[in-house]
Amino acid sequence: MPFSVYLHFPYCRNKCSYCDFYKELYDPEHERRFYEALFTETRLRGESWPSEDRIITSIFVGGGTPSLTRLDLLARWLEELKRHFTVLEGLEFSIENNPESVTLELLESYKELGINRPTFGIQSFKPKLLKLLNRKHSIRDSQRAVYLTNALRFENFGADLIFALPRQTSRMLTEDLDQLIELEPPHISFYQLTIEPGTPLAEKMARGKLKPVDEDLTYAMYRGGCEKLAEAGYVRYEVSSFAKPGHECRHNISYWEGQDYLAFGPSGHSFVHGRRFANVASVNDYIISLQRGEYPVEEDESGVAERMVEAIMLGLRMTRGIDRRQFAERFGHNVEDQLDRRQYEILIESGYIIPDRGRIRLSETGFFLADEITRRLIR
Ligand code: SF4
């Protein structure tokens, strides 16, 4: 079965106040050792992979801050990947970027490497909010990154914006959206801030120094944002993902639809040939395992029941919803049998869920309450 590839680049120059992804502070010597381990991981995977099953349909380099990477090392990884797998010509190839590290040379090198979908973590255009998030870029950095991307004629690229930030008003969000829409990125990820335990932001809240945005305002911000994006020609295809037609992120869709994906790098999660596993979330342990010639892997013992719940959660986040037939083929169970029947019927009657044409999907109103509805259904 064809599959997608994810690479977790585990370094950042600083740590954002809301972030709980695995990352280390950037160090060039450490990066070199990480890549040596990555080459070994790629070779080991390639050598043990079934020979009839080597087609890669999309690549996504995330992190961390992949735009800090040494490009000669990234190029060597791609060579190693191509030595063992078939990388389809013109496949979607995304890489995440922090605006302050984007240069013309960087983007030109991406093109040479076949990277055709850079994404930019803009998050906000308000200096006060960027400071709160401990982001290091300026408004000019974001504008310049997109300007250079357009100048180099990338047909596909994305930008991320966060809403429901402490101290953010509806007006501030509207201005952020206006500024972003003016830059015309073909894809926008419009995320609600989640306060992750253990982050500096969560600690500030626990000490009472910051207040979370209340639910009504969060709801109004999401609804207003969706309307604004729709007016500007962006189609929502998942709760947080909006695209001009034809620019949906194929890599993410394949993940949400439960197709196979193989992840490289520390903390990368994979699902291949019916098996789920995760690499250790420590770059040092990752390097040590691979120096010994061992996979740096922790098995995920979750069974069919957990995977069905995950498929329901991910499927309901997508505008097209859950395909009943595909669900039954994949798990051997009807999707309705996995739901809380009473809640399911109430949610249909109240117009939040639409069971139609072989699919179960959220209605327009249901979309604004996606997380709550999912919680009720799988309780
Ligand atoms: S740049 Fe990204 S990965 Fe790094 S700390 Fe900030 S949010 Fe987290």
Mean model confidence by pLDDT: 94
- Oligomeric grouping of the chains: single chain
Strand count, sense and barrel status of the largest sheet are: 9 strands, mixed
Judged by helices, strands and strand pairing, the structural class is: alpha/beta
Strand content: 15-25%
What is the CA–CA distance across the termini? 33 Å
* Order of the strands making up the biggest sheet: 9-10-8-7-6-5-4-1-11
- Looking at this structure, what is the CATH superfamily of the largest domain? Aldolase class I
Give the SSE map:
Layout: E1 3-9, E2 11-12, E3 24-25, H1 28-48, E4 55-63, H2 71-84, E5 86-97, H3 104-113, E6 117-123, H4 127-132, H5 139-151, E7 158-163, H6 170-183, E8 187-192, H7 200-206, H8 215-231, E9 235-238, E10 241-243, H9 250-256, E11 261-264, E12 269-272, E13 275-279, H10 283-291, E14 297-299, H11 304-317, E15 322-323, H12 324-331, H13 341-349, E16 353-356, E17 359-362, H14 364-367, H15 370-377
Parallel strand pairs: 1-4, 1-11, 2-3, 4-5, 5-6, 6-7, 7-8
Antiparallel strand pairs: 8-10, 9-10, 12-13, 13-14, 15-17, 16-17
Bound molecules: iron/sulfur cluster.
